[in-house]
């Protein structure tokens, strides 16, 4: 299939990848747009993995207020250089992450941030519920494993489905920006406040 300039332009607009990468992706996917996007995302993930150990001490503190001041979010997103921190792509990512936190109320950035005691508590809850339902043996273990996976998807920012695109997780969204700006990006920390919540809920 012939790869046209318009196809490349459209793919660039969608993914922010370079012209040659877009052409290659379209060739590899035989002109299928969605497959080309996936190909670039996978390539982006590979590129991002190589950058993951580079220090990221620049960045921004993004502040976001939602629902006429009913929900407030502050998130620190870091990158390697001041130049990248000022780029539109990086700023947009920081804003999108703040929106995600406001809408989906995660508690942690990544699964490894969940305290062991909390995981143990959730494990025991799932196990007790499975046994109440009359399950035994390996079936209980499977149910517990499934429950914990779902729990991590809910409470971990990086495992959540991106609110604007259900085909992406927040982690993949971050990796796309890493691939686009060519720098490591870290979501360092965040805080979400909701009007009227007690201190014990924060």
List the helices and strands and how they pair.
Blueprint: H1 5-15, H2 19-28, H3 33-51, E1 58-66, E2 71-79, H4 82-85, H5 88-104, H6 116-132, H7 137-155, H8 170-181, E3 186-194
Antiparallel strand pairs: 1-2, 2-3
Helix pairs in contact: 1-2, 1-3, 2-3, 3-8, 5-8, 6-7
Outline of this structure?
The chain is of the alpha+beta class and 202 residues long. It has helices at residues 5-15, 19-28, 33-51, 82-85, 88-104, 116-132, 137-155, 170-181; strands at residues 58-66, 71-79, 186-194.
> What order do the SSEs take from the amino end to the carboxyl end, as H and E?
HHHEEHHHHHE
Distance between the first and last residues' Cα: 55 Å
**What is the molecular shape?**
globular
- Would you tell me the structural class of the helices and strands? alpha+beta
Biggest pleated sheet: 3 strands, antiparallel
Order of strands across the widest beta sheet? 1-2-3
Number of helical regions: 8
């Amino acid at each position: 299939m012939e790869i046209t300039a318009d196809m490349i332009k459209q793919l660039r607009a969608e993914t922010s990848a370079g012209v040659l990468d877009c052409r290659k992706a379209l060739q590899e996917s035989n002109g299928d747009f969605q497959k080309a996007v996936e190909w670039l995302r996978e390539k982006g993930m590979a590129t991002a993995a190589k950058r993951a150990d580079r220090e990221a001490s620049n960045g921004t503190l993004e502040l976001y207020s939602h629902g006429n001041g009913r929900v407030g979010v502050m998130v620190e997103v870091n990158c390697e250089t001041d130049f990248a921190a000022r780029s539109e792509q990086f700023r947009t990512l920081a804003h999108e992450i703040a929106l995600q936190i406001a809408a989906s109320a995660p508690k942690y950035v990544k699964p490894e941030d969940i305290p062991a005691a909390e995981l143990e508590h959730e494990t025991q809850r799932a196990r007790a519920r499975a046994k109440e339902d009359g399950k035994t043996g390996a079936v209980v273990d499977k149910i517990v494993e499934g429950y914990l996976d779902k729990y991590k998807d809910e409470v971990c920012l990086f495992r959540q489905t991106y609110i604007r695109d259900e085909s992406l997780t927040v982690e993949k969204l971050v990796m796309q920006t890493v691939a686009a700006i060519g720098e490591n990006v870290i979501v360092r920390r965040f805080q979400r406040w909701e009007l009227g919540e007690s201190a014990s809920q924060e």
